[in-house]
């Protein structure tokens, strides 16, 4: 369109034309992604790469709630959970972060986002999935762990894993950079694990848990256990096994439904049969009240008190019972994106979200 004609258009129309032109230029950049670009060239448009394959821009929530959140001061991302992959080798029936995409950010882009979070006040990063050790046989998460501890000098770096793919060589290479390894274990009855979806074929999930506990001792990594309490394990007594394993924390979650993830028409799981009542959950907690490392998390505490980044580095808002993504921090910055996270900072502190989380400060008998 000739510039003179563009100048004579009404302002709203001109803006729309410019937006369309910008979109076409963006698409052109994406189509040229494989070609090398000289770093000295000033690029007014974003570099091509992951952004053009990112998920839908329905990203930020709309309506009055969005306007209210825009007016609020941005919370500090003190502790962030980065689910960099949705892929997993298990099929847990209650999973609320399912394999809806296979996308993983390029390593350098992930590092750039982590550096932005550190600049915004992040002190603890937790890498999760999916299963974090699926990507490059654990090398991807290993490099991120090393970067966060060695380059960003974060006080705490942790991973949540099902443990099935972790090998001792990973500890030898990256163990010194990891503060906490959390292993998901919902039952000490292998038949129950199979019912839940944590079956490993001929491998035994519980036996593997004990092996990982020993490696954590040998390589000075704090050991943690995460358990989701559901219909299949709510009657189980885990006192003896947890005390024997002696984790620094035993996180006990109430099974949670998230629309579009483990419930609803577009969900990959049907978790309704796993759900327990608040009363059931309280009875389980009461039965294990003498376990000193127990950290209970009901649905009410859990839903809004976590800062969750998805595979595109978008904050996920769970306040409406489903995961509404913000725009990516790589596009708009941390402070702009975090306004739409739905994060309840008061609940985060109330549930004990901030604790002694650096292994340098833990007085542990490895």
SSE layout and pairing:
Layout (H helix, E strand, L loop, with lengths): L2 H6 L2 H21 L32 H8 L7 E5 L23 H13 L4 E5 L10 H13 L4 E6 L6 H7 L5 E5 L5 H7 L8 H14 L3 E8 L9 H7 L3 E6 L23 H10 L6 E4 L1 H6 L3 E2 L4 E4 L6 E5 H4 L1 H5 L6 H6 L16
Parallel strand pairs: 1-2, 1-8, 2-3, 3-4, 4-5, 5-6, 6-7
Antiparallel strand pairs: 9-10
Question: Which key phrases capture this entry?
Answer:
366 residues, alpha/beta, two-stranded antiparallel sheet, 10 strands, 14% strand, disordered N terminus
General description of the model:
- This protein has helices at 3-8, 11-31, 64-71, 107-119, 139-151, 168-174, 190-196, 205-218, 239-245, 278-287, 299-304, 329-332, 334-338, 345-350, and strands at residues 79-83, 124-128, 156-161, 180-184, 222-229, 249-254, 294-297, 308-309, 314-317, 324-328.
- Helix 4 (107-119) packs parallel to helix 5 (139-151).
- The strands form two sheets. It has an eight-stranded parallel beta sheet with strand order 7-6-5-4-3-2-1-8. A two-stranded antiparallel sheet has the order 9-10.
- The chain is α/β, with parallel strands linked by helices and 366 residues long.
- It contains 14 helices and ten strands.
- The longest helix is centred in the first third of the chain and has 21 residues, at 11-31.
- It starts with a helix and ends in a 16-residue tail after the last helix.
């Amino acid at each position: 369109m000739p510039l003179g004609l563009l100048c004579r258009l009404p302002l709203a129309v001109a803006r729309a034309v410019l937006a369309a032109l910008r979109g076409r230029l963006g698409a052109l950049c994406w189509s040229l992604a494989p070609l090398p670009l000289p770093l000295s060239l000033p690029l007014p448009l974003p570099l091509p790469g992951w952004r053009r394959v990112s998920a839908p821009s329905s990203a930020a929530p709309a309506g009055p709630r969005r306007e209210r959140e825009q007016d609020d001061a941005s919370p500090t991302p003190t502790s962030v959970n980065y689910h960099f992959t949705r892929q997993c080798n298990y099929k847990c029936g209650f999973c609320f972060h399912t394999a809806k995409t296979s996308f993983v950010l390029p390593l350098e882009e992930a590092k750039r986002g982590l550096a932005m979070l550190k600049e915004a006040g992040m002190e603890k990063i937790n890498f999760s999935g999916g299963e974090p050790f699926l990507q490059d046989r654990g090398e991807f998460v290993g490099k991120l762990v090393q970067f966060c501890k060695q380059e960003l000098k974060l006080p705490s770096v942790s991973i949540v894993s099902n443990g099935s793919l972790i090998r001792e060589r990973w500890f030898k290479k990256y163990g010194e950079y990891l503060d906490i390894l959390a292993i998901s274990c919902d039952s000490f009855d292998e038949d129950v694990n199979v019912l839940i979806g944590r079956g490993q074929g001929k491998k035994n999930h519980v036996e593997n848990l004990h092996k990982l506990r020993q490696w954590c001792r040998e390589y000075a990594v704090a050991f943690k256990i995460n358990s989701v309490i559901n219909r299949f394990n709510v009657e189980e007594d885990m006192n003896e096994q947890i005390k024997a394993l002696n984790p620094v924390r035993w996180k006990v979650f109430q099974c949670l439904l998230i629309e579009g993830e483990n419930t609803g028409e577009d969900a990959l799981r049907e978790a309704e049969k796993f759900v327990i009542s608040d009363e059931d959950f309280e009875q389980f907690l009461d039965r294990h009240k003498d376990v000193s490392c127990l950290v209970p998390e009901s649905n009410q505490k859990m839903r809004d008190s976590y800062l969750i980044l998805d595979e595109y580095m978008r904050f996920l808002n769970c306040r409406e019972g489903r995961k509404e993504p913000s725009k990516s921090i790589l596009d708009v910055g941390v402070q702009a994106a975090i306004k739409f996270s739905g994060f309840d900072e008061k609940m985060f502190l109330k549930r004990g979200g901030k604790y002694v989380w650096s292994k340098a400060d833990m007085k542990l008998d490895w």
